[in-house]
Task: structure prediction
Amino acid sequence: MVFAKDEVDYSLYLVTDSTMLPEGTTLYSQVENALENGVSLVQLREKNVDTKKFIEEAIEIQKLCKKFEVPLIINDRIDVALAIDADGVHVGQDDMPIPMVRKLVGPDKIIGWSVGYTHEVEQLAQWGPDYVDYIGIGMVFPTNTKKNAKKSPMGPRGVARILDALENNNVDWCRTVAIGGLHPDNISRVLYQCNSLSGQRSIDGISVVSDIMAAKDAGAATKNLRDILDKGYYSFVNLQLSIKTIYDLDFSSHTKRFLEQVAKNRPLVQHITNKVHQNFGANVTLAIGSSPIMSEIKEEANDLAHIPHAALLVNTGSVAPLEVVKTAIQAYNDVKRPIVFDPVGYSATTTRIVLNDTLLASGQFTCIKGNTGEILSLAGFSGKMRGVDAHEGDFDKNLLAQATREVAFRFRTIAVCTGELDFIADGTLGGTYSLSDGTKDRVLKDLPCVVVSNGPIPLMGDITASGCSLGSTIASLLGGANSDENPFELVVAAVELYKEAGRLASLSSEGSGSFHVQLIDKLYNCFRSNPRTWAPKVETL
Ligand SMILES: Cc1nc(C(=O)O)sc1CCOP(=O)(O)O
Ligand SMILES: C=C1C=NC(C(F)(F)F)=NC1=N
Ligand SMILES: [Mg+2]
Result:
């Protein structure tokens, strides 16, 4: 049987490995259990076996695949693929060049190629539609399965960039699977975040080796992955994610309700943050009615995350060891508690870019908050001029709104861009994801985005940790909220509250010293004065 190429289901692609089989299992039994539970494509990958043995295995596995009407792909060995008339081959960058492979296997066979860089997509585009049918994009996360791997983990954002490259090079014929360290605890995030910026493309599937091949119960492992793939919804935080495009943002009533919830639920806000912010952030958190804990103890994160209404603030200005931060992010994601991420100094140095990119790839954040420079860099705008027709004000405003929406869309988060104007965009799309067809019905310009303007508060820039402490405020409202509240509304209210407190503080202080104190006072009093008297200007973009 020859599979029509456009009918191949790439959703759950098993790549075999007979060097990691648990006691009492065989290559055949693992593949059979996987096929029975939803694997949609199989690749026989053997790095160190003699050709005779490989052929015997291939014939055996081919019979199994035919029984389940699933195509069989052979890794690397074109000769073996031809010998058994397999449905296709997969080659890596160091294997036989693609044009030769196509010449040998003919036009009907499936050809897969390992891709890790955008220049490889450009090569793919040059060959055109008759060569590569799908690409394995990896590695997404660290993996021990691929020995001497020369590539470093690219994270979901790296996969999304390859999807962008496919679009930018008009490669619409090629399907995509993500591969590398994929397991039940991270594929929801991969499916959720791996979209091209245009929303036209998401990955067509995921590919796993050890999650199934090393599983004692390969059937159960497969079913677990299958269920997540078919779910189409990632509930990463126990708040009410929404797919709304326009919110009725009634600052005074929302903020009053949110602060009442903070007072009632007294959220624990764990700060992993820089030394300068720790003291002021703790005081801001207390002023609002939450209870701060500045903890960088790896073993503690899981206990803290389980405390009701806990929230995590990660501010990468800190020098906390990477493993401590990653453990905390994983712990709060596991219990669906909100995490606010503040990529301090993003783009200032390569070290900070690598550190922040590693952490951004390690979890799902409810909110990513940065200043103008950080958000522009995260969106990849830094230094890129976008036309000069608009005058300074609008130019910044449109650019910043665009950058904030791009960060929100790329990381599926509530993105906050702070500055003279504060921009907030909701890229969560209600937690929904789907294979292959991206977010077609929702694109960047549809994302809810507001700008909070309260007039300049110059003193904000003259005190330490003013931006960092907005993170404490956002984490407090997200942490204190009841589960039926919407994170976008909570974040907008937190920004308005903080901005309004800053404005009031600047009216009643004569310098940065008293401003520091006044800011705490105004936040502290926000419970007591009637927010209705506050009127920050919120404009929906
Ligand atoms: C076969 C392979 N190729 C990769 C690439 O990055 O191209 S990573 C990989 C191994 C993936 O194994 P596991 O699912 O056990 O992490
Ligand atoms: C190195 C590889 C990379 N990707 C893939 C797949 F996911 F199948 F595309 N298979 C491989 N053997
Ligand atoms: Mg190879």
